[in-house]
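Thread amino acids onto this structure.
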């Protein structure tokens, strides 16, 4: 368990109903495979020792005795093995029969969890055989193999040295009930829920099952390992499908879809991420609810390679349909937020600086929608391009065409003369291409926008995005400032996808301009063009690739991940796209700039929150301006390429 990752597996076996000897052999094979794959936690299906479909054979003393003998055999087989295994069997206790799971570690039964909610509808008639765990006392135990073992639905299993490595068990129907067993388990401290199941397959059930696991994992901020019986459990009127699902905080991170045939699904659940989410969520306050028991276990912490794949663009959904839905939703949030600000301030116009780049394009699109919402003419949007030393013909032309096709008022105000006058006033050598040379242009542009807004009774719409705020890649009191920043919580990687979405809804002429804007390198265009009028300043050459920085931003802010962990998952996500040295270099740049530039974020304008990660000082991010980055940079410097 390195960096908080718990390697888990959901698996089924080739079961023969009521053939305990066969099933025991198959369970041992699954345990051996788990050991080979260095799995921490293996979850096998409900009643896998006997088979779920035994029906009234569960009343057979021979079957019950055989399953207990098999449990002892399986327990003995796990001696010297590192994996914890969860196996299902029927157990007789105080005159009642229970559908149970035994949690086994290194030859020891840590606890036995009976099923709480017993289905008795449709094709299920478990109440004919089994009693509910609710009949048991909170401190109940059962004697197994001569040892007293905790017995109940109130057990939290906890690693003796790793506080974040905790899990609980609920069984099949417990997930489908109005009040789930997992609710109490998670509130009492379980970070992972294991669910051995024997869910049959009918039309529509796959999607509903997936939705239940995802929503439970999301609502309870937990990992969830759901292991369901395979087709060999099928009998009479029911067919099982081995639908295994592993979730983390509402996201499916591994799955064997019904009938796909992969009977052993392995991935890693990030317990640190789960804890990070719970710490921030004050509605989720873990507490011992009184009735819960905590069973400690030992397990060697083995560092293994990650089998889980992390998204290179965590802000962007994988599914194109989802991307389109998100883009539409974000544009609505932007435009309705801006519309309300226009209404409240009685602004007659919206003034926006257009550069032919990604950010100003998205801001202009959102402003157009805001004016359409208010039924105000688009000509009340005053889009100003302010060419100077670094402006290229490509970006200037795209700005003009964009405004023409959107039907907004376009103005060109060349600031070269004003900036040169300013250089003369402050004694700046115009041949010295330093930060003063660059920032003077940015501040002049902001002055023009602000003053033009005053002149027209308008409101300046800001264009800066979340990625720039994270890096502090903005001129203080220059493009850093506006009256409403519509892009303030949208990262650069996501902006590209929103513009692509708009292309699909645009006229052919507008679409062509938007495509060329997407193809234009990101640049503030503050340094002079070359002899051919081409761009000489590219942002990503200076501060690094935005897709890397957005990745760092997501993992550091959302989960509080350490530099070495971010480096590890970045290598996993990007593969050979970037060298190890490049990832480490740009990670160090991100951390240093993120800390040093907080002063800019402490006084940014209002802007709509569109996602779970924002850096507004009035919203999700409260950081001291003078915080030190030393411990983060020191850890980054110690990263070795392994």
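Threaded sequence (642 positions):
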């Amino acid at each position: 368990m390195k960096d908080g990752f718990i390697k888990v597996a959901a698996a089924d076996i080739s079961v023969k109903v009521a053939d305990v000897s066969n099933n025991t052999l198959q369970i041992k094979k699954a345990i051996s495979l788990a050991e080979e794959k260095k799995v921490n936690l293996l979850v096998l299906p409900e009643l896998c020792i006997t088979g779920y479909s035994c029906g009234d054979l569960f009343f057979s003393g021979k079957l019950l005795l055989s399953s207990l003998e098999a449990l002892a055999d399986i327990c003995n087989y796990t001696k010297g093995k590192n994996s914890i295994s969860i196996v299902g069997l029927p157990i007789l206790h105080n005159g009642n029969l229970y559908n149970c799971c035994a949690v086994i570690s290194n030859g020891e039964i840590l606890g036995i969890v009976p099923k709480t909610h017993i289905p008795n509808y449709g094709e299920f008639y478990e109440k004919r055989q089994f009693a509910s765990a609710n009949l048991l006392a909170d401190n109940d135990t059962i004697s197994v193999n001569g040892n007293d073992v905790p017995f109940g639905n109130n057990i939290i299993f906890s690693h003796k040295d790793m506080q974040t490595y905790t899990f609980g068990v609920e069984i099949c129907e417990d997930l489908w009930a109005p009040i789930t067993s997992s609710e109490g388990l998670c509130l009492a401290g379980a970070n992972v829920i294991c669910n051995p199941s024997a869910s049959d397959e009918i039309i529509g059930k796959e999607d509903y099952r997936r939705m239940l696991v995802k929503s439970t994992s999301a609502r309870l901020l937990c990992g969830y390992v759901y292991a369901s019986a395979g087709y060999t459990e099928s009998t009479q009127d029911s067919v099982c499908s081995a639908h295994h699902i592993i979730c983390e905080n509402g996201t499916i991170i591994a799955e064997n879809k019904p009938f796909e045939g992969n009977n052993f699904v392995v991935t890693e659940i990030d317990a640190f991420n789960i804890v990070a989410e719970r710490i921030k969520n004050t509605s989720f306050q873990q507490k011992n609810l009184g009735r819960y028991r905590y069973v400690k276990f030992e397990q060697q912490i083995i560092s293994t390679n990650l089998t889980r794949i992390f998204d290179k663009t965590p802000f962007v959904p994988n599914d194109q349909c989802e991307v389109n839905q998100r883009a539409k939703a974000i544009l609505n949030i932007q435009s309705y937020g801006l519309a309300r600000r226009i209404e409240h301030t009685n602004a007659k116009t919206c003034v926006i600086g257009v550069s032919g780049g990604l950010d100003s394009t998205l801001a202009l699109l959102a402003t157009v929608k805001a004016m359409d919402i208010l039924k105000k003419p688009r000509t009340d949007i005053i889009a100003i391009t302010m060419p100077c030393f670094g402006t290229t013909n490509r970006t200037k032309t795209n700005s003009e065409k964009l405004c023409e096709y959107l039907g907004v008022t376009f103005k060109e105000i060349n600031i070269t003369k004003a900036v040169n006058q300013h250089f003369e006033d402050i004694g700046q050598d115009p041949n010295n291409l330093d930060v003063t040379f660059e920032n003077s242009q940015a501040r002049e542009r902001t002055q023009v926008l602000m003053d033009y807004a005053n002149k027209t009774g308008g409101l300046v719409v800001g264009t800066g995005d979340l990625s720039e705020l994270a890096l502090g890649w903005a001129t203080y009191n220059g493009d850093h400032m506006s009256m409403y920043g519509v892009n303030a919580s949208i990262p650069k990687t996501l902006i590209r996808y929103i513009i692509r979405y708009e292309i699909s809804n645009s006229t052919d002429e507008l679409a062509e301009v938007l495509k060329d804007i997407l193809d234009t390198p990101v640049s503030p265009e503050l340094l002079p063009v070359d002899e051919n009028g081409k761009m000489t300043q590219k942002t990503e050459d200076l501060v690094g690739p935005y897709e890397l920085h957005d990745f760092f931003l997501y993992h550091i802010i959302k989960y509080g991940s350490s530099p070495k962990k971010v480096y590890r998952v970045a290598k996993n996500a990007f593969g050979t796209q970037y060298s190890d040295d490049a990832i480490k270099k740009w990670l160090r740049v991100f951390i240093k700039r993120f800390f040093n530039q907080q002063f800019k974020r402490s006084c940014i304008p209002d802007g709509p929150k569109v996602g779970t990660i924002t850096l507004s000082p009035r919203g999700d991010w409260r950081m001291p301006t003078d915080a030190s980055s030393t411990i983060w940079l020191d850890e980054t410097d110690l990263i070795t390429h392994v």
